[in-house]
Amino acid sequence: LHLQESGPGLVKPSETLSLTCTVSGGSISSTTYYWGWIRQPPGKGLEWVGNIYYSGSTYYTTYYNPSLKSRVTISVDTSKNQFSLKLTSVTAADTAVYYCATGIGRDYPSGVDVWGQGTTVTVSS
Amino acid sequence: DIQMTQSPSSLSASVRDRVTITCRASQSIASYLNWYQQKPGKAPKLLMYGASSMQSGVPPRFGGSGSGTDFTLTISSLQPEDFATYYCQQSYSTPITFGQGTRLEIK
Q: Which pLDDT tens digit goes with each residue over A113-122?
């Protein structure tokens, strides 16, 4: 399983950050994996943003960090085997390396065992 | 949210030293604790899950223990490639949360 992030590296304050993660070596419609986003501000620790899970019958369930919930949307494009992150009304505090990642179980009890390489997003005018 | 606190925040050690990193949860998380290693400019790498289960491919010099609120990651004999930052992560409840990290440096 391999994950690769893509998207703009620079976003203006108050605008929307949009990133895509392309999944290879596995299906985005797997009922095994929770597909998620984790971010890391410069020089700081890791923060879970949210994840999405295929619960069957074309139905996906999302889970978001309450601290970001009002601004975050995670969605899936099954035709491209991708999942995406949208974060609205960004500020400088949203500047971070954004990782797409996956593991088994909503809270990853067996760990986040597959990570993308990460993409740096800077919020600045 | 469950708060995860690691100690120390940074640590200097020499090759072949035995090193222990501690992670404390703000409430009991049973054994729902994972450990990651991160090197500069790279994504984190899963080392341990379920407090004491080793991820495939991780050298046996790494070991984890603990349950409830107190956990440890031990490296029995440091190797040059082990100098990195280590994070714990609770997988007991949403939102999952990480410790602030322990930076392991060469003495």
A: 999 999 999 9
Q: What is the pLDDT of residues A86-117, one digit of tens each?
A: 999 999 999 999 999 999 998 999 999 999 99
CA distance B17 to A55: 47
Residue of B nearest to A64 (CA): B95
Q: Do A66 and B97 touch (CB under 8 A)?
A: no
Q: Do residue A65 and residue B95 have CB atoms under 8 angstroms apart?
A: yes
* Cβ atoms of B50 and A109 closer than 8 Å: yes
**Token pair of A39 as six digits:** 């971010």
Cβ pair B98:A67 closer than 8 A: no
Return the closest-CA partner of residue A72 out of A59, A54, A84. A84
Of the candidates A45, A67, A99, which has its C-beta nearest B101's C-beta? A45
